[in-house]
Task: inverse folding
């Protein structure tokens, strides 16, 4: 059982806007939907175009995929800690530093897609097996409080947010 939270931190609003736009309420169904939407885009991109950027100071397509994966890892780990009532304050992360240090631009595009798919499947099982009480546990991340449930929906919304960016800013450059 799940419901779309409304008491999320302000910086997550674009992610929850994407969740609402999907029209899907159930978290497990949303995770499946986001996965399908991402791979609809990724399957259109030839590996030799994975390093395309829409502006010089923006990430390449493969860096966007790496960022989606890294963010899902962070959010899922936080949800895991919070679902287990971990009393520690969890740290934030600088997304730009993580992308820069990821070496994404020299990775195999297909292999990174497989890595994402494997991790996303783990995340789907993890959230599917949480009890309602575990989903509703709250914890502290850096300077905000959040529930495991909020983090689950944020994972999906974050992915869909980047799917829209890939559609709007990257795919037109590829002449597919």
Result:
């Amino acid at each position: 059982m799940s419901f779309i939270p409304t008491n999320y931190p302000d910086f997550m609003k674009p992610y929850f806007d994407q969740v609402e736009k999907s029209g899907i309420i159930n978290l497990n169904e949303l995770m499946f939907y986001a996965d399908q939407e991402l791979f609809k885009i990724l399957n259109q991109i030839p590996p030799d175009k994975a390093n395309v950027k829409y502006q010089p100071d923006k990430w390449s397509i493969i860096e966007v995929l790496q960022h989606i994966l890294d963010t899902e890892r962070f959010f899922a780990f936080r949800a895991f800690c919070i679902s287990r009532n971990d009393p520690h304050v969890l740290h934030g992360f600088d997304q730009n530093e993580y992308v820069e240090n990821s070496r994404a631009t020299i990775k195999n595009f297909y292999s990174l897609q497989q890595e994402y798919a494997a991790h996303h499947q783990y995340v789907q099982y993890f959230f599917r097996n949480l009890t309602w009480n575990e989903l509703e546990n709250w914890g502290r991340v850096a300077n905000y409080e959040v529930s495991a449930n909020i983090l689950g929906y944020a994972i999906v919304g974050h992915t869909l947010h980047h799917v829209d960016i890939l559609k709007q800013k990257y795919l037109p450059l590829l002449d597919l």
